[in-house]
Amino acid sequence: MNMELDRIRDAARVLKARIIRTPLVYSPTLSDLFGADVYLKLENLQKTGSFKVRGATYKILKNRDKLGPRGVVAASAGNHAQGVALAARQAGVPAVIVMPVWASITKQIATRNYGGDVILHGTSLSESLDKALELSREGRTFIHPFDDEDIMAGQGTVGLEILEDLPDPDLVLVPVGGGGLIGGIGTAIKALRPRTQVVGVEAAVCPSANEALRTGRLVAVGSAQSIADGIAVKRLGEKTFEVIRRRVDRVVTVDEEHIAEALLLLLERKKVLAEGAGAVPLGALLTGAVRCEKGRKVVLVVSGGNVDSPLLGRVLTKGLLKSGRLMRFTVQVDDVPGSLARLLGVVAAHGANVLHIYHDRNVPDLPLHVTRVELEVETRGFDHMEALTEALKTAGYQLVP
């Protein structure tokens, strides 16, 4: 008897009708791009916008009679906070969520709206965690974000659903942060279809899983800011590490540029809004860190869609610049009537769409009769950018560095 699989099946029973059974969607676009049959498991459509509600709900409901007299407490800057808050409300128990002071206002509001009592404490997540553990000693049950068998079992229901919809996947790519999601999915899939490869994907700026697997022990890694902040976890959990060693074939990393590219590709071509952590499986295909063979069935787990609007704007702009879809340039023109119109005429004649113009006469080193014009235009790619640049030079404009 496989006790781990039994726990995941019990989680599926408990969670039935309490969460959304998210779709597994075939993508013709991505399949053509990578030469394999590519499917997306859309956990960004889950309640609270993330898979996290699965584990939190199972943990709280399974242990409803054992919870502290004052409910539950958790520490999180985002998805776990919202998952625990909603799970506690559905179970009818109070929840205190400790969030670092820099947690986004959007996520603070969402957590409160799901019923959580939000306390802002600490300049780091570890300080928020210390505060949550302190509060747990006052009669609240601490809900760990990943290093817990019940949490992993709840997340493992994602793996069961994948196999119910696609019984024979060859490869499943899963984001890795603390390891709860891939631990659960890997356990479910390897128990039911051992031939399927389960590959983890983490942000290159925070490679805690890679370092743990390389050294054979848990290590804390440094972490820079990442678009995939949801998986920027500096150290795996003890329980999740043991499961990953047994159930996961390998873990790869993706750099920030390819995470942004993946996010943009999902949004533009599939109309799927993914947060950075949810886009890393596609990023692994874009970098070539994971290669697909023709005819293989590949599942990308889009783990969540909770991306802040300001960050989304920056990511999209960076992605457009990187792909040659956005061009910015500066020229100097005579400050006489018609000069700007002539410049815009060259841009229009070559099919570029003007997005922003900044017209500056007050540049210290410019003659009085000259003005500087900065333009941001939408282009079709690098060939189009090159053609526009040549047209501007032919028309007599010198692009200013």
UniProtKB/TrEMBL annotation:
This is L-threonine ammonia-lyase. GO terms for molecular function: L-serine ammonia-lyase activity; threonine deaminase activity. CDD domains: ACT_ThrD-II-like, Thr-dehyd. Residues 328-401 form the ACT domain. It holds the Pfam family PALP. One of its GO terms (biological process) is L-threonine catabolic process. It comes from the Bacteria. It comes from Desulfacinum infernum DSM 9756.
